[in-house]
Amino acid sequence: MTKLQKTKLEKIRKSVDKEKKRLRITEPKFTIQLDSKTDKLLLGYSIPIDVGIDIKGKRIIRKKQKKKYLSTVTINDLKYVVMSTQKYADMVSNEINSNVRTIGGDKDTITYWAKFYYENPYRFGNIEITPKSLNGDKCSLTYLINFIEKEEPSMLNIWNWVEEGRDFLVRYMKHKQTIGGEKKKWSNGSVNSDYRRIRAFFNFVSHNVEGYPMGILNKMPFAKSKTITETFTPLEMVKVKQFMEDYADGEEWCWFIPILHTLLETGCRVSEVCSLRINNLEPIERKISIVGKGNKKRFLYLKSESLWNRIHKYIYDSNGKIIIDKEYIFHLNYYVRSYGNWYFMEDISKPFSTSGVQHKFKNMIKFLKLNPNLTTHCTRRYFITEMLKKTNGDIPLVAQLVGHNTWDVVKLYTKDLIDESKKVNVGLFD
Q: How far is CA 1 from CA 35, 39, 90, 145, in A?
């Protein structure tokens, strides 16, 4: 550096220091430096960096010296530099703050907020999240955190998601669809469901962390899975009806058939039927109130004579009085086979589990040699299809009966409503 350069640089530094005092800028600290070869000025300052964790588990933070060229500003631009003092202070301050966020503490990690998210049933106001939804969020975020810890630990910091989150989430979902999740590769439906949970989580973070932007993962292009509308064929349903009549009193199937009949006649989900409570019944009108998916309340109608006759004994005792010593209509009662004999088991305090009914349904499918792809959800599809036929396509009514907020899903079933009585051609030459 020449003597002239030193003189000019010293004059600039003194002028900038004087301007700092006038503006009362004490932080951040920075100095004006010179590239003697080009006469261009630089800002000299330090930023905090994370260099690891000590033996006590605390973060070790060091300061790293940095230099930033001031674009086209040279040693001859004294007035411009002095006028830009506040701008330079803000520039350095923003970089330091950004770096501090990236280093973060516990409250800047996904791990911290995830636990707060899935353990808190009241996220917004007094709206309560169901245990099932909380568990789904927990599984979704746990899979995500496990992947981040193995593949890209820097994404554990919530602030890194502001700029990189969308690209990272695409990589994560591609991994789940090509390599697989905990058990198998994810379908489009699984990806879309997981995306909605992760998106909701980061929107929750934005409500609770000052300065965190809203909607960083909104409107991402993940394909939805095609809604399946296929259910029992007419021949399969004949076999099912015959099975229900032939095995209604047999030890192996007697507990399952009333539940199956209820599923087919009401279009309920298995979890809803298992949790039907006697106290929610209106016996004269033969309807029962339930709380379905998403805390939606609706009535389940038991007006079918065949269904009512089948489940009557679970509601009334032998004297025609409503049973009061149990909570659930379908309380736990079944037969166990041991050494060639059947033994009756019962617990009036517990309902049948959803998984138990689903497992028994699969056994029935094998027993009757039906389509192995049929699941308990096909009983719901069967109800929707048949009710649309019986009500001449009354979509709002059927949507209400099965607990859908919108009519869109129910509309998909109307393609199956063509029968021989319908005119399906113009008939130009008839």
A: 9, 10, 29, 52
Only one residue has tokens 């009757």, namely 368
What is the residue whose two structure tokens read 């909570």?
327
Q: Minimal CA–CA distance to 85: which of 161, 141, 4, 29?
A: 29
Q: How far apart are CA 325 and CA 346, in angstroms?
A: 13
Sheet holding 40-53, edge to edge: 31-35, 40-53, 59-74
Which 3-state string (H, E, C) describes 190-255? Answer: HHHHHHHHHHHHHHHHHHHCCCCCCCCCCCCCCCCCCCCCCCCCHHHHHHHHHHHHHCCCCCCCCC
Q: Which residues pair with 40 in a beta bridge?
A: 35, 74
Q: Is the pLDDT of residue 430 over 70?
A: no
How far, in Å, CA of 328 to CA of 315, rounded? 9
Q: What is the rounded distance in angstroms from the CA atom of residue 361 to the CA atom of residue 357?
A: 6
pLDDT digits (tens, 9 = 90+) for 281-340: 999 999 999 987 767 788 889 989 999 999 999 999 999 999 999 999 999 999 999 988
What pLDDT does residue 227 have?
A: 66
Residue 2's φ and ψ, nearest 5 degrees, are: -75, 165
CA atoms of 8 and 75, how far apart (whole Å): 7
Choice among 48-62, 173-187, 336-350 with the minimum mean pLDDT: 48-62
234-369 fold: hpI Integrase; Chain A (1.10.443)
For the chain, domain boundaries = 3-103, 108-208, 234-369
